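--- STAGE predict ---
source: upstream dedup step, 1 unique chain passed
mode: sequence only
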Amino acid sequence: MGSAPEAVKRLMVTVRPVALADIEALYDLDQACFEPGIAYSRGELRRFLRMPAAEGVLADDEGTLAGFAIGYLSDGRIAHVVTLDVRPERRRGGLGKLLLEDLLARLARSGAREAHLEVSTENAGAIAFYEKLGFLLRRRLSDYYAPGRDALEMEKKSLQERSR
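--- STAGE serialize ---
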């Protein structure tokens, strides 16, 4: 019997809800994915996960954190994506799409009808990724990350629920 194609192998992960016990692994991956000033502190990650309407999902690859996504429901109908982190060696294989879609589906089941997120204007790869998944430019946020470090606020209308 032959082995699965490489693209399929890369997605053979267990996706599960994030727990507060995962904070250290989430923090380490976030620090690896984002530069200082953009990466979140342990306290910020804890604060997001403790929000009443928070959702977090992670991809576990045989005990190794391959990626995670955190978001929350605001104003009763807007999903706000806080972060999407995927190990650099696991990017461009569908894992980010899997995590983001799972997160948005969970938030849609909680009542979200649209989603918002912020992305650095310097991160062309992420902007293209979000556009491919149906996000559109909403507005530019001047000095969002630091003076001279702008972000784009992007939105996706009409979230669709997905069964668990």
